Amino acid sequence: MSRTVYPFYSSDISSLARSLKRQWMAEAEAPGHLQILNMLARSAGFQNFQHLRAEHDRPLPAEPQTVSNEVRRLLRHFDGAGRLLRWPKKFSEQRACLWALWAGLPRGEEWDEPAVNAAIRALEAFGDHVLIRRELVEGDWIGRTGDCRRYWLIERKAPEEMAELVEQVRLRRAG
């Protein structure tokens, strides 16, 4: 049976330690597992561990019903901030995701290699900006000089079938 993982966060480690110490000292003997879980939960601002679990077990809001099934499937590759989480295996999904990434790049600028890398890194979360840069260049979304010192966006009109994905990813970045 798999174990559910509950994330734990405290904005102030010092107050967390003080709270734990105060609760620990109130116990007559060493606290048990559940008592420690309750102490940690109370230190993070919850009533007890059950309250912490209930907060984390809440279902995530569903994607709006106005989004097509195809776009909903493609949005799995993006996090809540609109960054690409993984490189899709299917070529068609790769191309669709590249349209969304290309649309998020700043317009009207030329970059040197470190600047284009930084711009792409801001749009991806899996750590392979070089792969994305290469695909953007080979797919004619980005142009570059022969010595790879200057990069620029090639203005293109996104196909109609990509407009919904580009818009949904833009909304995630804005939100």
Descriptive account of the structure:
This protein is mainly alpha-helical and 175 residues long. The protein folds into two domains: 13-56, no CATH class; 69-174, no CATH class. Helices cover 50% and strands 5% of the residues. The chain has eight helices and three strands, in the order αααααβααββα. A three-stranded antiparallel beta sheet has the order 1-3-2. Strand 2 (142-144) and strand 3 (151-153) form a beta hairpin. Helix 1 (13-26) crosses helix 2. The protein is elongated, with a radius of gyration of 23 Å.
Please provide the ordered H/E string of secondary-structure elements. HHHHHEHHEEH
Indicate how many domains the architecture comprises.
Answer: 2
With helices defined by DSSP (H or I, 4 residues minimum), what is the helix count? 8
Query: What gap, in angstroms, lies between the N and C termini?
Result: 36 Å
Structural class: mainly alpha
Largest sheet: 3 strands, antiparallel
What would the average pLDDT be, to the nearest integer?
A: 87
- SS elements, strand count: 3
Estimated radius of gyration: 23 Å
Residue share in helix = 40-55%
Domain DUF2087: 83-153
Protein name: DUF2087 domain-containing protein
Pfam families: DUF2087
InterPro entries: DUF2087
Q: How would you briefly describe this protein structure?
A:
The protein is mainly α.
Topology:
Layout: H1 13-26, H2 33-43, H3 49-56, H4 69-75, H5 91-104, E1 110-111, H6 113-121, H7 129-138, E2 142-144, E3 151-153, H8 160-174
